[in-house]
Amino acid sequence: MPRIHPDYDRASAEHYWGEERRKLRDEFRIVLSAGEPPYVNAAYHAWETNTLIDSLAPKRGMRVLDLACGLGRVTAPLAATGATVVGVDNAFAMLRAARTKTRRAGAKRASFAQGFAGMLPFDDRAFDAVLCLGLLEHLPAWLQKATLAECMRVLKPRGALFLVLNNNRSLLLNAGKDNAHRQARQLPNGYYAGLVDRETLVGKLAKAGARVSAIGSNGHYAVLRHALHGRTVTPREARVAAGAFAAATERDLETPDQGAFGATCADHFFYRIVRR
Q1: Hey, how many other C-beta atoms are within 10 angstroms of the C-beta on 114?
Q2: Is the model's pTM score more than 0.90?
Q3: In CATH, 10-274 is 3.40.50.150
Q4: Structural domain boundaries of the chain?
Q5: pLDDT truncated to tens, each residue of the chain (276 aa)?
Q6: C-alpha angle 96/32/60, rounded to 5°?
Q7: What angle do CA 77, 215, 275 make, to 5 degrees?
Q8: Element (H, E) at 75
């Protein structure tokens, strides 16, 4: 697997996600946030998957690409709805685990393939929907651009790209106390994380003719997460926090249009981008 660009080593990234990250064992810590308590990751998962399912409305016959599918966190429940889902990941070890998870869930309409986000192994207009959930923050800018171009290429006309981006305009994320490894460069262990220029990215898709809609942001979750980040809590406090995060997620789902509050506080924005 050759190095395709001087600032990004695909093989190193595969080793990190497929081998090192999987040592954490807990699924959400592996594919979401390695340093957060389980209830924080569970709240994020609930916000993301509920927003997706409500907007996508999966049904039998729909072909969906789950890009950077990881351990099948979204692939498995989506395939259980009757949609035909193809999970793709750069890390082969992730794909093996995702296949097992999906089979155990009884979802038969799922298949998996190892692939690189900047050069997808599919024909033009092959999918009704493409999921790109939290991937771009782990890619350098040139690869973000190539990945979005590939996502749009494999979409059918009037198909939708479901895109989750971290929020580079968040006052909380920009405070610099959240993720010490978010350095916008690939670290020696293969990990890459940075803040995505979300408005520029989606703006370019809109200028190219796509119909862009923001379908959610998670400001209430983010405020609570940053307020508690790094604190040591007792078991009783953890139970209280878990309830608070669940309530915050409900508020985020009830108020997907959060205006200035979301723009300045949310960790993530969720977009639905329709190819014309």
Answers
A1: 16
A2: yes
A3: yes
A4: 10-274
A5: 445 567 899 999 999 999 999 999 999 999 999 999 999 999 999 999 999 999 999 999 999 999 999 999 999 999 989 899 999 999 999 999 999 989 888 777 899 999 999 999 999 999 999 999 999 999 999 999 999 999 999 999 999 999 999 999 999 998 867 888 999 999 999 999 999 999 999 999 999 999 999 999 999 999 999 999 988 999 999 999 999 999 999 999 999 999 999 999 999 999 999 999
A6: 60
A7: 85
A8: helix 75-79
